[in-house]
């Protein structure tokens, strides 16, 4: 074949004759045919040149040249072909003998295999029957198992074991439904299984709906229980703080008989514990059951409806929370606020448990979103209700409950700063209402005051009205009946102020601000300085009539001054700061205006009384021949009155108050004496009259000295110094060298209270005994008195200065 192919690719030899162009064209055509090339170009060229006969001639020539080659090939293979035919003929006889042999073997095989084939047919038929029976048995067994599963599923359905029923359905669906040989059973399963799943979904949804209804009531009770436990814990803390304050007070008073006791830590387990946080979600203390919820969630997971149930649960709980936000306009918020906040607290306690044990039923972000919504609504409700309230106690009750709500929910990790901010925001309004209430109470107490000393018949009365406010002057319990130096107004006002402090601290406590003493102190200052002080000022200006009432008010003010120290200590103790810090920041007496007004009124009334006796100074003989030895009439009356006054006042007035009042009265007497010498009613006076006034002043000074047992030595000297102006004036007029008044050093040391104009006017009225009528005729040539000369020089110099 290769030789033939190679021979076909060899170009034919050129024929003899013809021109060279035809030979070349014939050669190219032969080469193209041998190489199996496309003859299209040759044909187009022939027809284009109009010489198709030439192309046809060349083709015929090529065909004749190939015929000779074919003949040569046939001649070369003819002998081999003849030999092959001979071989085939020889084999034909062998084939015939083989055919006859095979026919004989087939006949013998057919005769032998006939009975065997019949036996084989019988065997095959028996085998088919056996397979059919076996298949039937398998089908029956499968149907029995299927019916058992169906019966078990019906049993679980009737017992409410929906999860087990669903597991049976899943087993039937996965292992039996497609393999069930019974078409009837298969159609029944295809029809009933979706119905059963739908039935289970309806039943479990109904149970879940019932749980949603029940959990609202449970949430309210749960919230009340949780807040109640927080309140009990707070009360235990308060009791412990009271015991600590009592221990501190005993330590401060250096009492040796101290009582020690072990504190029992009453741990009730709390509300936030993780006990019983299993699948059923029970909690013995909390008293709520999450089993229906988790059962419904698990069934929906089994049904492949997990996401739908999550959404359904969240939407329903959100709707419940929204309905919990509704505040009834028919019931006052003061009556419904506990139920309102307890419902919300219970809701989020339940959600916290679901979040921790629900296996992803609700996400943390969803709970946070619900809480943010709840906080926003509660803040809005509080803002609205607080803006309407006009009673401090109502606002305090709601604040306390809200703070307990914050304490309760903070234990579950909920942020409550926004609620506490609302409470802090209304701090000023609460205290303004509290100040207004105290203003009314104080006005009623003061209006009922009878300005009588308070009588206490029993020790408990003394403890309730004196010791409880630390206004006692001695740690020794007095004998009973005991007459206090103050009226009933004092303990009544103290109770009002103490109640104000406790209410203020109660409002500020548990509000997120740890150090609130400065706030309590600020409002306490306002209560004392703006409310109580102003009320006392009004009482003093309108209701006090007579010295006894003024004296009682002054005594009350002295006791209230001690009570104010207790008020600030009490505020510091309740605020939880050391007493030394409170004492360090103590300001001046906040009732100083009322105290000064009371003392001023008492002094004014005493001055009025004294002025009635001082009118007797008009009876003094200013040109007497002999000085008075026992004092003038006016001073004796004044001293008798003052001694009577002191004997009464020292029973109720503190020594310092009595000292200030007497000092003011004696100063007034001194001014009256100087005023009498300066007045127009006294035209002139002599040395004897001045010596009588000197006796009067000595009697007054002796009165002051006699009060030394009541006061300290310094206070007694201050009383005497109240007479300084009149004493210094009399000393100047009785001096042998009155012109020493012009010496600055001597004046500063001995006459520092005297006014030079008064000295000049009074000195001009002083007459020497020799200045009597007609006395100049007998003493015209006598030498002038040196004292008279010094006094004249003083008068002249003072006139020059003026």
UniProtKB/TrEMBL annotation:
Chief localization: cytoplasm
GO BP field: acceptance of pollen; Golgi to plasma membrane transport; intracellular protein transport; pollen germination; pollen tube growth; vesicle tethering involved in exocytosis
Keyword Transcription regulation: no
Domain Exocyst complex subunit EXOC6/Sec15 C-terminal: residue ranges: 419-765
Residue span, Exocyst complex component EXOC6/Sec15 N-terminal domain: 58-227
Gene Ontology cellular component list: cytosol; exocyst; membrane
Segment forming the signal sequence: none
Cross-referenced InterPro entries: EXOC6/Sec15, EXOC6/Sec15_C, EXOC6/Sec15_C_dom1, EXOC6_Sec15_N, EXOC6PINT-1/Sec15/Tip20_C_dom2
Keywords on record: Cytoplasm, Exocytosis, Transport
Cellular compartments annotated: Cytoplasm, Cytosol
Coiled coil: none
Transmembrane segments: none
Stated role: Component of the exocyst complex involved in the docking of exocytic vesicles with fusion sites on the plasma membrane during regulated or polarized secretion. Involved in polarized cell growth and organ morphogenesis. During cytokinesis, involved in cell plate initiation, cell plate maturation and formation of new primary cell wall.
Similarity field: Belongs to the SEC15 family.
Protein name: Exocyst complex component
Gene that produces this protein: LOC111283685
């Amino acid at each position: 074949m290769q030789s033939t192919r190679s021979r076909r690719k060899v170009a034919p030899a050129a024929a003899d004759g013809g021109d060279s162009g035809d030979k070349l064209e014939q050669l190219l055509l032969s080469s193209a045919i041998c190489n199996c090339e496309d003859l299209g170009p040759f044909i187009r060229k022939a027809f284009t040149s109009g010489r198709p006969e030439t192309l046809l001639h060349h083709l015929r020539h090529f065909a004749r040249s190939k015929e000779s080659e074919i003949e040569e090939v046939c001649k070369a293979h003819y002998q081999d072909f003849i030999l092959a035919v001979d071989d085939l003929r020889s084999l034909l006889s062998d084939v015939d003998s083989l055919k006859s042999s095979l026919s004989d073997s087939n006949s013998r095989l057919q005769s032998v295999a006939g009975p065997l084939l019949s036996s084989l047919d019988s065997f095959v038929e028996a085998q088919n029957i056996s397979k059919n029976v076996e298949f039937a048995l398998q089908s029956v067994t499968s149907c029995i198992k299927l019916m058992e599963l169906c019966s078990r599923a019906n049993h679980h359905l009737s017992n409410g074991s929906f999860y087990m029923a669903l597991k049976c359905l899943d087993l039937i669906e996965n292992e039996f439904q497609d393999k069930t040989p019974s078409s009837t059973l298969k159609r029944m399963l295809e029809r009933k299984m979706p119905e059963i799943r739908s039935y289970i979904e309806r039943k479990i949804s109904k149970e879940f709906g019932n749980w949603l209804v029940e959990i609202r009531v449970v949430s309210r009770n749960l919230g009340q229980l949780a807040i109640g436990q927080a309140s009990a814990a707070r009360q235990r803390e308060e009791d412990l703080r009271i015991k600590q304050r009592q221990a501190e007070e005993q330590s401060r008073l250096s009492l040796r008989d101290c009582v020690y006791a072990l504190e029992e830590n009453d741990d009730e387990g709390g509300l936030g514990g993780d006990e019983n946080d299993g699948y059923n979600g029970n909690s013995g203390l909390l008293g709520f059951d999450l089993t229906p919820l988790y059962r419904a969630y698990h069934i929906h997971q089994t049904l492949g409806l997990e996401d739908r149930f999550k959404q359904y649960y969240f939407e329903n709980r959100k709707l419940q929370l929204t309905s919990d936000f509704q505040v009834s306009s028919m019931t006052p918020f003061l009556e419904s606020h506990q139920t309102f906040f307890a419902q919300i607290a219970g809701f989020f306690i339940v959600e916290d448990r679901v979040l921790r044990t629900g296996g992803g039923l609700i996400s943390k972000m969803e709970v946070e979103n619900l809480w943010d919504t709840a906080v926003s609504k509660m803040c809005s409700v509080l803002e609205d209700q607080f803006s309407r309230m006009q009673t401090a106690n109502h606002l305090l009750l709601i604040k306390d409950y809200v703070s307990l709500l914050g304490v309760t929910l903070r234990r579950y990790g909920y942020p409550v700063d926004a609620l506490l901010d609302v409470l802090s925001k209304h701090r000023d309004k609460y205290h303004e209402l509290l100040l207004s209430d105290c203003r009314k109470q104080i006005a009623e107490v003061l209006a009922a005051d009878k300005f009588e000393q308070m009588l206490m018949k029993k020790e408990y009365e003394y403890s309730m009205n004196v010791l409880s406010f630390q206004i006692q002057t001695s740690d020794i319990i007095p004998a009973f009946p005991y007459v206090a130096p103050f009226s009933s107004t004092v303990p009544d006002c103290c109770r009002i102020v103490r109640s104000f402090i406790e209410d203020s601290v109660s409002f500020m406590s548990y509000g997120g601000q740890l150090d609130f003493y400065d706030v309590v102190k600020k409002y306490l200052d306002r209560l004392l300085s703006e409310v109580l002080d102003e009320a006392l000022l009004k009482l003093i200006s309108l209701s006090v009539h007579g010295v006894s009432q003024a004296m009682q008010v002054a005594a009350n003010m002295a006791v209230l001054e001690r009570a104010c120290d207790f008020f600030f200590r009490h505020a510091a103790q309740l605020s939880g700061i050391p007493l030394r810090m409170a004492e360090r920041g103590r300001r001046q007496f906040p009732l100083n205006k009322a105290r000064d007004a009371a003392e001023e009124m008492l002094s004014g009334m005493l001055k009025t009384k004294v002025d009635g006796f001082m009118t007797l100074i008009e009876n003094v003989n200013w040109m007497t021949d002999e000085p008075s030895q026992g004092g003038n009439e006016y001073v004796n009356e004044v001293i008798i009155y003052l001694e009577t006054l002191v004997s009464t006042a020292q029973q109720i007035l503190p020594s310092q108050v009595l000292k200030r009042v007497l000092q003011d009265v004696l100063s007034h007497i001194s001014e009256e004496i100087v005023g009498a010498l300066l007045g127009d009613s006294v035209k002139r006076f002599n040395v004897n009259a001045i010596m009588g006034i000197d006796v009067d002043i000595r009697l007054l000074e002796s009165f002051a000295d006699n009060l030394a047992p009541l006061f300290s030595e310094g206070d007694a000297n201050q009383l005497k110094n109240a007479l300084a102006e009149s004493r210094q004036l009399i000393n100047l007029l009785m001096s042998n060298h009155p012109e020493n008044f012009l010496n600055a050093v001597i004046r500063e040391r001995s006459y520092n209270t005297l006014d030079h104009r008064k000295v000049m006017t009074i000195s001009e009225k002083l007459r020497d005994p020799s200045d009597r009528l007609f006395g100049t005729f007998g003493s015209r040539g006598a030498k002038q008195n040196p004292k008279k000369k010094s006094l004249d020089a003083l008068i002249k110099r003072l006139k020059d200065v003026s």
